[in-house]
Amino acid sequence: MEKEIQLRNDIFQRIKQFQPKSPDNYRLAFHLTPPVGLMNDPNGLVYYKGKYHVFYQWNPFDTKHTFKCWGHYSSNDLIEWEEHPPALVPSEWYEKDGCYSGSAIEYDHKLFLFYTGNVKTEDGGRETYQCLAISEDGIHFEKKGPVIHLPDGYTPHFRDPKVWQHDNKWFMVIGAQTTSHDGTVVLFSSDDLEHWQLEGPLAGKGISLPNHFGYMWECPDFFSLNNTDILLVSPQGLKTEPFKYENLFQSGYFIGEWNMKSKSFVHDEFNELDHGFDFYAPQTFEDQTGRRILIAWMGMGDEQEQSHHSIKSGWVHALTIPREIFIQDGSLYQKPVEEMKQLRNKENSENITIANEHTKIPLISDLNEIMIEIEQFAGKQFEVQLQNNCKLIFNNEKGILTFERKSFDQLNLETRQCKIDNLQNLHMYLDRSSLEIFINDGQIVFTSRFYEEAVKNECVITVDGKTKFSLKNWSLHSYQ
Ligand code: FRU
């Protein structure tokens, strides 16, 4: 208890003393960011007692992945967020090196958090415990300690429990690594949320896949959507292929069918959820209206992580905007939740017809929503440049979409690519130093951070054939 009080006090003091170095031109206005320090995975997404709750992996003391607790925001409408004291801080032996990622569910009017207690051992190894904490008000949590210990057959890279209810039973998936170093997801079941039975691996090499597919699968999520069963997972160790797996780590999904009795999950191939530079560890929840909402970490723990310019102002990373997900033509689509429209301020609409030229459209602000609807395009290339450093290029002949940004040190151009049949529309959210692009009604998404000294607030569209499109631009309110 003493350690917990001390830690909470240290975090409180840290926030109080923290003075952002002004001006902080990169601070995001309508995304969740840490008050100070480093934010990574979204945790425990849930609608509980009339409010949306978003917890997250938080290091309030540094912009590196050292200390980890659960930061906490709540909201009535997914737009305005209230900050709460950290929900879980690593005060006990079974979590001494971090309260790692996990999930939340409501049962018996209480909020149950499941998370991984991370313990580093003196010999450089680690231990892992899947732990439970319970709350009656959604703000203060009582720790119940470990409910699952590491089973045989897996290394201590065993974490990130996601719990759900199905046919009056509780289920949990855990991201894992087998002792032969294959990524996998392990299923448990329970009747009372405290005692858990090992059901066995749900997916991975030799289970649902013929071959090795990454050395570790982090942050799993499993749910039904439009009569299919979907496993979201963040595999580590996939080799880059043309148009695929270009980031250090990936996040994506398998669509299939889960047979609880035969314990089988038969699924299609892995598809990435996002093709941008900064997207990882997505989690979903079903809200009170029946929507399935996804939020991901808008970040990547790669070699550029410590070059984020925001580190000079004492913070790094953010979460994506909430996205509603649905299945269309056998793929998972994402679109910004309806509530995002509440952020709209001034509007500017234009219908544009151009041929072999570029047109400059001034943006109203550095916080923008932009919608481009293409009515006619027969050229080879359609290019949208936003600010100085971001460009989306559609190559019509090859069916390739390329997102280009300047590296954080401004020295190189970096690209991410995917295949696409045609380009119909673009829906973009630009929040100072972040850009989310939803393409063809959410079929493809690119999420990226970028940094530039002086933004021009400008969108430049370049085409090489007769093109007709409409463009709508709203300046957006800041929620903070
Ligand atoms: C994913 C992850 C999780 C872990 C957490 C620690 O980004 O590595 O597997 O629980 O971050 O912060």
Task: Describe the secondary-structure layout.
Blueprint: H1 2-17, E1 37-48, E2 51-59, E3 69-75, E4 81-88, E5 99-107, E6 110-120, E7 126-135, E8 142-149, E9 154-166, E10 169-178, E11 183-190, E12 197-204, E13 216-225, E14 228-236, E15 252-259, E16 264-267, E17 271-272, E18 280-286, E19 292-298, E20 315-316, E21 318-319, E22 323-328, E23 331-336, E24 344-354, E25 357-362, E26 367-377, E27 381-386, E28 390-395, E29 400-406, E30 413-419, E31 425-431, E32 434-439, E33 444-449, E34 458-463, E35 467-476
Parallel strand pairs: 1-20
Antiparallel strand pairs: 1-2, 2-3, 3-4, 5-6, 6-7, 7-8, 9-10, 10-11, 11-12, 13-14, 14-15, 15-16, 15-17, 18-19, 19-21, 19-22, 22-23, 24-35, 25-34, 26-31, 26-35, 27-28, 27-34, 28-29, 29-30, 31-32, 32-33
Beta-D-fructofuranose (FRU) is lined by residues 40-41, 57, 68, 100-101, 116, 159-160, 218-219, 280-281.
Distance between the termini: 33 Å
Query: What is the strand arrangement across the widest sheet?
Result: 24-35-26-31-32-33
CATH architecture of the largest domain: 5 Propeller
Strand content: over 45%
Low-confidence stretches: none
> What is the domain tally?
2
Oligomer kind = single chain
* Largest sheet geometry: 6 strands, antiparallel
> What structural class do helix, strand and pairing data support?
mainly beta
Q: Which molecules are bound in this entry?
A: beta-D-fructofuranose
CATH topology of the largest domain: Tachylectin-2, Chain A
Number of helices: 1
Rg on CA atoms, Å: 22 Å
Number of strands: 35
